[in-house]
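Re: [help] complex structure
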Amino acid sequence: METKIGVFICNCSGTLNNIDFDAVVKKVVELPGVTSIKFISPLCLEEGKKKMLSCIREENIEKVVVAACSPEFKEHVFREVLENAGLNGHLFSMANIKEQCSWVHEGDVTGKVVELIKMAVSRTRLLQPVKMNNFSVNREVLVVGGGFEAINAALQLSRAGLRTTLLEREAVLGTGTTELENLCGFDINAMVMEVKGDENIEILAPAEVIETSGKIGDFNVRIRKGGEEISRKYGALVIATGYQTKLALESKLKSDVNIVSQEKLCHMLEDPELRIRPRTIGFMLDFADENSRLPTLATLNNALAAKRKWGSEVYVFCKNVKVDSERIERLYQEARDCGVMFLKSDVSPKVAAENGKIKIEAKDIFLGEDINLTCDVLVAEECLLPAEETEALSSILNIRRDSRGFYQDENVHLYPVASEKKGIFFIGGCRGNLDLSRVLTDVSSVVVSIYKLLSSGNILAEVERVKVDPQKCVACLTCIRICPHNAIQLVRVDGGKEVAEICDLACEACGICAAMCPAKAITFQGYRDEEILAQVETIGES
Amino acid sequence: MNNCIVAFCCEHSAYPAADLAGKLKLHYPENLRIIRVPCAGRVDLIHILKAFEKGAAAVMVMGCEGGACHHMTGNTRAKERVKYCNLLLREIEADGRLVAMFNLSPNAPHKFVGAVNEITKRIKESGR
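Output below.
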C-alpha cells in the first residue's frame, strides 16, 4: 500500500492573490499518494500549526508536503510540527509557491503552482526517515598556543567547567605579548599566575603537537613533551598560535640605529639613559601590508609618546590610516591635535640612508607636491605574518590556509572562528585577526561554541543521513580525498574488506561525495539520485 | 518538458538569492523550475542530462561565489561537471551553452534574475 501523503496549502494571509486555489486543490487531489489536502492560512502561526497537527493525527498522514513560502525560513517550523505528531522530520518537502512563484510572476500562476506541488509530492513519495541519535563526546579541550589569546581562552573554558590543556612551544607562557601589554595595558603576568593556579587547566610546556586524528568529540592528539611522546584525547581543539612581525624594508636598507622597529622605539622611549633624542622621526604605515590595524595602533601610540616625551617632529607616511577598530579614531585625532603630520601617498616613499640620517622622498597626493625629508630615525613598517609553526600545524591538522598563510579566514559562509573541520577553532593572530577587541570577540565566540558542543557530554546528530553501502564500495578513496570536511575514513568490515565510512558527527551533509562516488555507493537521504530525478521528471508533465 | 529551464540552486547561495528576488518582486520568465540542492557539488551529470532528456530547454547550476563555497570545493566541482556536460552537448551537435554554471552570493537577487535572463537569451539564440 502506498504511503499517505498530506498536502497543506497556505496563501500567506491572502498575499498570493494570483493563484486560483480551488483549481489547485482539484488538480492536486488527483496525484497518486495524496490522501488529504488542506487549505489552512496562515499555516505557520500557532493556530495553523495546531490544525495541521490534528489533521496529521486524524487522517493518519505519513508524509507531508507544504505548499507555502520558502523552506529557508519556515522549514524548521513545519518539521517541528511533524515531530510533535510523531512523524520523522525528514519525511517532508516544501513547495515554494510564494517567493519563487506568485511574487515573481505577473498574471495567473495556477499552472506553475500545481507543477511545483507535483514536484514536491514526487520527491516526498521517495523520502525515507532519518534517525537522530545522541553521541557521547569527550569534554576536554586542547588549546595550542601560549600567548594572550590562548591564556584568555583557557581561563574562560575552565570557568565554563571544561577541563583544558594549554600546550605551548616555548618553556614560558606569555612570551611574545609585549605589544598587547604596551598598547592595551593588559597584565599578562597576572593571567599566567591565574592559569597556573587553576586546577582545571593543565599546562604542557615546552611541547608540540605531532599528530592528530579523529573527529569532533574524539580527537586523538600525539604530543611531544621533552623527550617523550604522549597520547591524549580531546573533544575540541583551539588553535591560538598567534603571529609574527617582519620589517618591510628594501633590500639595501638594514635595521640599525636609524631604522628601527616599533618595539625598539618603545624601548628607546622608556630608556632613561638615552643620550641623544631624535629630533625628527618618520613612520611608514600601510604600504606593504594592508592588514594594518595593529601597526596603526602602535604607530599612533608611539608617535604621540615621542611628541610628548621628546618634543620631536613626527611625520607619518601612510597610504591609509585605518581607524575602524576600537580607540584608533580617538588616538588619530589626538595625534593630529598634538601636531603629528600625516602625509598620504599612493606609492611607497623612497628611502635612503645618508651620513647617519635617513632621506625620505614622497609625493603627497593632497598637497600635490614632492616632499623631501631628512629624519634622524625611521620607524619601518611591519608586516604581520602567521607564526612559524602555522604551516606545520596546518598539515598536521589537515586544514587549509588562506593566500597570506593565515588559517582559513576567507570563507564568508562559515562561522568566523570555525574551521572546515568541526571541532577545530581558531583565535586571533593565527587567523589574521589582530586588534584587541576582535581577539576578545574571537575568544568569546570560541568559548561559547565549544560550550554548546561539549558541555552536556552529548551531541545530537543525524544517523546515517549520508551513508556508504559497504557492498558497493570498492575503496577507491575518491570520497576520502574530496570530502571538504574530512568526515570520511577507511574502516575494515567483517570479512577483511576495507570500505569508506562516513562519520555522522563530522559530516556536514553537502552531498559532494554522493555525486563523485564512481560506484554510486553513497546515498544521501533527502537528496538521493532518485529524489532529485523524480523532481526533474515531473517538470512539464502537465 | 516544453521548454522549461531547470535550475539546480545551492541552498546556501542561489536559493536564498531566488527568495530575495521574490521578496523584491523582481520578474523573470515563468518557465523556470528551481530544484533545491544542499550544495552545487551535489548535482551530478545524470541530473543535468535527465533534464535535457525530458525536454528542458536549458539547465542552470547555481552555486556560491568562487572562494566562498560553504563546502569549500563544491562550486568548483560543479563547474567541472558543467564543463564536461558542455562537451557532451557539443558532441551531439547541440548548443553547449545551454547548460551553464553561475556563481552568486545569497544577497544577489539581481544577479540571479540576470542569470535567468542570460540563459533565456541563449535559448532564443539557439533557435528553440
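Chain B has four helices and four strands.
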